[in-house]
Amino acid sequence: LVKLLQEIKTCRAPDVVVLSTIAERFHQNVEEFFPPQLMSVIRSFAEVRFCDPFIEAAVVGRVDDLMMSPSPWRVRTFLHCLAALRISSEAAWSPVLPHAREHATNVKRYIP
Predict the structure, then answer these.
(1) DSSP line for the chain
(2) Tens of pLDDT along 59-108?
(3) Is the pLDDT of residue 9 over 80?
(4) C-alpha dist (Å) from residue 83 to 3, 9, 42, 93, 103
(5) What value, to the nearest 5°, has the Cα angle with vertex 90 and ends 4 and 104?
(6) What is the mean predicted confidence (pLDDT) over 31-40?
(7) What is the pLDDT of residue 107?
(8) Interatomic CA distance for residues 89 and 18, integer angstroms
């Protein structure tokens, strides 16, 4: 699934039916993915700007796993993906925002 999405990203205009099928398969098997794999899939969908209810449900269902002591890179990337996918669900954003605030204050501390 991850490799297929990597190949689809290189297409100029990916087929929506194929993306929908991949999104449905992703949703059905989302519990089998480790957080780095989840980020890879979510980032790939964000890069082609494709989101449907299956992707949104998968993201909301695993957001807590992704935000278990996340790195600043993961928080930034995940926020970017949520925005690119236009996911506005409170359930997707609320676990991320405290980490974003925490990392933002850490960054400010090191700026001269």
Answers:
(1) -HHHHHHHHTSSS--HHHHHHHHHHHHHTGGG--HHHHHHHHHHHHHTT---HHHHHHHHHHHHHHTSS--HHHHHHHHHHHHHHT---HHHHTTTHHHHHHHHHHHHHT--
(2) 999 999 999 989 888 998 999 999 999 999 999 999 999 998 888 876 56
(3) no
(4) 23, 18, 12, 10, 18
(5) 85
(6) 94
(7) 59
(8) 25
Which residues make Cβ contacts (< 8 Å) with residue 107, sequence separation at least 6? 72
Cα gap 53→110, rounded to integer Å: 40
Q: Using the predicted structure, report yes or no on whether residue 112 has a pLDDT greater than 60.
A: no
Positive or negative torsion for Cα 76, 69, 102, 109: negative
CA distance 19 to 87: 17
Count the neighbouring beta carbons within 10 Å of the beta carbon of residue 42.
26
Global pTM reads: 0.85
Cβ 96 vs Cβ 82: under 8 Å = yes
